[in-house]
Every structure is written in structure tokens, then in C-alpha cells.
């Protein structure tokens, strides 16, 4: 969570590549804007996307940590386990995520303020549909890659509804009914 001087922002692309999002989050102009917005730590999980040269010069080609533009930046390809991603989310003040359902649900169940950035390069616009539905429900903020900085700036002031807790018993009942066990 917040350090003595600022906020921690986590950007995750899950198990895919979404270089447009990770590049936008790591752009020098974004780092300047994040620092001005009170973010002093940026964690970017970018899958197998290339690490931009100005970041790689500090953290290395495979990731690591260092100061870039007055922001502590940690770049990683993947986490070692779902528990590690949960810990990163818990330690962050806000999360920016691609619109993958697993990443979204993990952040909503923390709960953490969540900015969803759909990847319009994936099939059938399903990420946009999911993001729009959750935004309509009041659970998340949504942004495009091009509007990432303004989306992050708005994220910390946004009032999101708390997402309902998991109810595994409901799923089991639906499955039993569908399979004809009831």
C-alpha cells in the first residue's frame, strides 16, 4: 500500500502479451504524470512483451527494479504463483489490468481500485464487453491505452461499488441442476 510519500500502482497483463499497455505505462511521459499524481512505485507485469529501452537500461532486459524518472519501477515478466499476484495486488493502492476475467476478479475481490484497459486486438471484443458491463455496474473504471494516464489520475478519486463476494455454492447448485442431479 501507500509508502510514506506516495502510492503504489500495479499494472498487469496477466498471462498474455499486451505491449501497448505495458509500453504506455512505462513511457517517460506516463512516469512523469504518475509521479505528479503521487505514485512513487510502479510495478509492471508485462508477460513476454519487450521491455522499453529506457527501462531496460535501468532494470535489465528480463526485468528487475530501479529508479526511473523519480519513480521506483519494478518490471517482471510473470509472477511465480497466483499467490504472488494476490500479494502484489494487496500491496498496491490501485491496479491497472487488461480485461482478462481472472485479473479483474482478483483485483475486485481484494478489493482494490481497478482501471480496466481492454485489449482491442483480441477476438470478438470480449474484453471490451466485460469492461463495459463492469463499468455499467459501478465496479471499475475503464480506459483505452491512449487515455491511460488520465484514467490512472481519475482512478484514485473514483467511487466504485464493492464487488459481491464469491459464492461457490451457487455454482455447484447450477452445475448440479444443469447435469440433472437435482
From TrEMBL:
Taxonomic lineage: Eukaryota, Fungi, Dikarya, Basidiomycota, Agaricomycotina
Residue span, Glycosyl transferase family 28 C-terminal domain: 8-165
PANTHER family: GLYCOSYL TRANSFERASE-RELATED (PTHR12867), N-ACETYLGLUCOSAMINYLDIPHOSPHODOLICHOL N-ACETYLGLUCOSAMINYLTRANSFERASE (PTHR12867:SF6)
Gene: ALG13
MF-aspect GO terms: N-acetylglucosaminyldiphosphodolichol N-acetylglucosaminyltransferase activity
Catalyzed reactions per annotation: an N-acetyl-alpha-D-glucosaminyl-diphospho-di-trans,poly-cis-dolichol + UDP-N-acetyl-alpha-D-glucosamine = an N,N'-diacetylchitobiosyl-diphospho-di-trans,poly-cis-dolichol + UDP + H(+)
UniProt protein name: UDP-N-acetylglucosamine transferase subunit ALG13
The protein's Enzyme Commission number: 2.4.1.141
GO CC field: endoplasmic reticulum
Subcellular location: Endoplasmic reticulum
Amino acid at each position: 500500500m501507500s509508502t510514506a510519500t506516495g502510492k503504489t500502482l500495479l499494472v498487469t497483463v496477466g498471462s498474455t502479451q499486451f505491449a501497448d499497455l505495458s509500453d504506455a505505462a512505462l513511457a517517460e511521459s506516463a512516469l512523469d504524470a504518475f509521479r505528479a499524481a503521487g505514485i512513487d512505485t510502479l510495478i509492471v507485469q508485462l508477460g513476454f512483451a519487450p521491455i522499453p529501452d529506457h527501462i531496460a537500461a535501468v532494470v535489465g532486459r528480463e526485468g528487475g527494479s530501479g529508479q526511473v524518472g523519480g519513480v521506483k519501477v519494478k518490471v517482471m515478466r510473470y509472477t511465480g504463483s497466483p499467490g504472488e499476484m494476490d500479494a502484489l495486488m494487496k500491496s498496491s493502492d490501485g491496479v491497472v489490468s487488461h480485461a482478462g476475467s481472472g485479473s479483474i476478479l482478483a483485483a475486485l475481490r481484494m478489493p482494490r481500485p481497478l482501471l480496466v484497459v481492454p485489449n482491442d486486438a483480441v477476438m470478438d471484443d470480449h474484453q471490451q464487453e466485460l469492461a463495459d458491463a463492469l463499468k455499467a455496474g459501478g465496479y471499475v473504471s475503464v480506459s483505452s491505452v491512449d487515455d491511460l494516464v488520465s484514467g490512472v489520475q481519475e482512478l484514485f478519486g473514483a467511487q466504485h461499488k464493492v464487488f459481491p463476494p464469491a459464492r461457490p455454492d451457487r455454482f455447484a447448485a447450477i452445475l448440479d441442476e444443469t447435469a440433472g442431479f437435482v
